[in-house]
Amino acid sequence: CNQQALAEVCQSAQYATNATTTFVSHPPVRLANAATAAQRQSTTTRRSRGDPTSTNQQKKRRKEANVVHSRNKREKKKKEFQALQEESERVTKCHAALKAEEDRLQQLLQQAKSVLLTSNSSDMDDTK
């Protein structure tokens, strides 16, 4: 009886040793996979629960993006306004030059009319 019990204990000890050896040879892979799965699960759970830190980070990123967008928009509008001011100044100068040209041409037209009237009157005087 003792020998049979001793043989069973030896067999179970050897089985346990083989199982431990087998387990020891593979645990890094199993543990790494288990750890990765646990991280995925906790990340998914954290996101789905609305973790305050991730929400705060999202708000902070959104606020920074809004600040950058607002700054770019303000600079763009400032450049557009500057371009419109320059265009306005150019058009104003062009208008002034055209107005001066119009005045000069009106004056020449008046002179031509007066010369024409004068020449017509002198032609009439000559015909008499």
TrEMBL record:
It comes from the Eukaryota. Residues 34-45 have a biased composition (Low complexity). Residues 33-89 are annotated as: Disordered. Residues 70-79 have a biased composition (Basic residues). This is BZIP domain-containing protein. It comes from Entomoneis paludosa.
